[in-house]
Design goal:
The protein has 207 residues and is mainly β. It folds into 2 domains: 2-27 and 105-206; 31-96, SH3 Domains (SH3 type barrels). Helix content is 8%, strand content 48%. It contains 1 helix and 15 strands. The strands form 3 sheets. Strands 8-9-10-11-12-13-14-15 form an 8-stranded antiparallel beta barrel. A hairpin with a 5-residue loop joins β4 and β5. The chain is elongated, with a radius of gyration of 18 Å. The chain starts with a helix and ends with a strand.
């Protein structure tokens, strides 16, 4: 009964927090890799311009790269780069399809995190996830996956089982801010952590 109540509460809170998005069609996630045919590194720029400051490099074949948005020209993609963001030329990227969690748009390898208190959750495989808090890191099995019955493709609820507890996570494809930076992520997460029944929020991204 606790699991059902936790799932219901989490879904309701997620929907109430984002009612403005209730009638929108979710955008399919787009993931890329750096073209393997490149003979040099791909520069990550501070701004969407070939003359902008070089803040890092991606190796040929590097993947997965999640493009958060594009510039007005459609030639540059905004990506998460280390602890900030940067821009890469889209002509050097190739779109890829990532394994997804059962019949959902949630990609395997998605990492969610929140602050104050700090927590992370990584979907490692179709059957397993790891939940980490400031106190511990706990491997969990993904027991049940449920997609919203009255919206298209998301939110997606995950029932996560450990040896002693059942946690519930709700993932939504929508803009999300971590509250510490100006990065706008494309996934939001709500998680209820047992046995304290703590509801925590965060954002998710592919790394």
């Amino acid at each position: 009964m606790k699991t059902i109540s936790a799932l219901y509460l989490s879904v309701v809170l997620t929907l109430l927090n984002h009612t403005a998005l209730a009638n929108t069609t979710p955008v399919q996630p787009e993931y890329y890799q750096v073209s393997a045919s490149l003979t040099a590194h791909l520069n990550v720029r501070a701004e969407p311009s070939a003359s902008a400051r070089d803040i890092g490099d991606l190796n040929p074949g590097a993947r997965p790269i999640e493009v958060l948005k594009t510039d007005p020209t459609g030639e540059w993609g905004h990506i998460v780069w280390q602890e900030t963001t940067g821009w890469v030329a889209l002509r050097f990227l190739e779109r890829i399809t990532l394994p997804q969690l059962q019949d959902t748009i949630v990609p395997i390898g998605l990492i969610c995190a929140g602050t104050e208190p700090f927590w992370t959750m990584e979907i490692e495989s179709p059957d397993n996830a790891v939940l980490s808090t400031e106190a511990s890191s706990t491997p969990m099995s993904i027991n049940t996956v449920s997609t919203s019955r009255n919206r298209n493709q998301h939110p997606v609820a995950l029932e996560l089982l450990s040896k002693n507890h059942t946690n519930v996570t709700v993932l939504s494809r929508q803009a999300c801010s971590d509250g510490l930076t100006n990065i706008q992520y494309n996934w939001a997460a709500e998680i209820i952590i047992q046995p304290e029944f703590n509801l925590l929020s965060g954002c998710c991204v592919m790394r």
